[in-house]
Specification:
two-stranded antiparallel ribbon, mainly alpha, single chain
Amino acid sequence: MADHLIAIGALVLIFTLSTFTSVHMGALALVAAFAVGSSVAGENADDVFGGFPGDLFVVLVGVTFLFAIAKNNGTIEWLVHAATRAVRGRIALIPWVMFLITATLTAVGAVVPAAVGVIAPIGMSFCVRYGISPLLMGLLVINGASAGGFSPAGVFGSITNGVIERNDLPGDPGLLFLMSFLFNVALSVVAYFLFGGRSLLGRRAEDGRGGLGTGVGGAPATETAGGADGPPTAPAGSAPAPAPGGTTTVTFAPATADVVPRLDRARVLTLLGLLGMVAGALFLDYNVGLMAFTVVVLLTLVDADAAKGAVDRCAWSTVLLVCGVVTFVGVMERMGTITWLGDSVAQIDSPLLGALLICLIGAVVSAFASTTGILGALIPLAVPFLMDGQVGAVGLIIALAVSSSVVDSSPLSTSGALVTANAPEEQRPQVFGALMKWGMSMALVAPPATWALFVVPGQG
């Protein structure tokens, strides 16, 4: 038992140090794997490296490499412009366009923080131009990233399904993706009407001015002194200026015509490659990482310039994080610590209560740490708990995955921090506070909600 407590203490220390210091979680996990493996488990370096997840490494590098090329050759830019023009000036639909674009990017393999990092600045520029609440836009971008992340080709989905396969658990990648997507859509509907979406209904942007601006919570801001038809007092894209009395004055400049990128051969091939990768993962059970590398090689042969610098823009930080945590969890598994923990949870008199506890742990820890790291650590924890068959494995895995990902709106997580950083400067403190409240409420609300929806109906 003492060895197990040391391993658990090391895992807690990994998450704690990476949360409150600048030390990378993946590097900490690899050091912990070496320290605990050699001093406690009696393993050598070959034993420790035996738990390195080579399959996840290929998936993460392959899909992020492909995403970098898609960004280089303008495919991502084309998707964004085409989608926003498709709404024909309906301002109320713009946040949903950002939701769908972000979901699409993560569904085809973009790392969640990378997708949020690309779309959040674009979304915030629409907030300034058309008076959309930055909190509303930020939440739909984050929820969109989580909604697409659990596709079989997505990073979250690849990690979760990989852990399920390695532990011989029953899984349903399609159902995991569908339930995650629908749950995030439902959350986004709630956020839309809570934070100013109703005020956007019926507004159009033909004249480049969407109407009155909105504050963080969606309350309408005051007009400029010139009135609705008066001349703008700030250039396009400028941030709102605080007005006397604490209100926010938002001005709008005439929008310039957006130049839609041309759909050339490289972009068509990239879109076909992304669609083919998703189809292969969904219907043919092909390895996502190997398919991604295949598309990368073909695109590089067609357009070598698009591949320049793409390797440098692979999500190496995420690769190190996931591989480091999974390697350390492998040490814990060989020590028997994971089995011991799972057996301890399984000894709780009520299996349903134990399932709820696992979901709550995943949500709370993920709000302060990396979702990718949490998924790799907590699913193995549930393995012994699921073996007795009293709780459905598929339902609990879906509940745990959703609970651990919807808290990414916390500004202490990467996605929430990216949205806060891209919000208009004078509204960042309010956005930070609102995202903190929303993220913490998700940590409390999501576990019982997902437990009731996915675990309770599947009780054995």
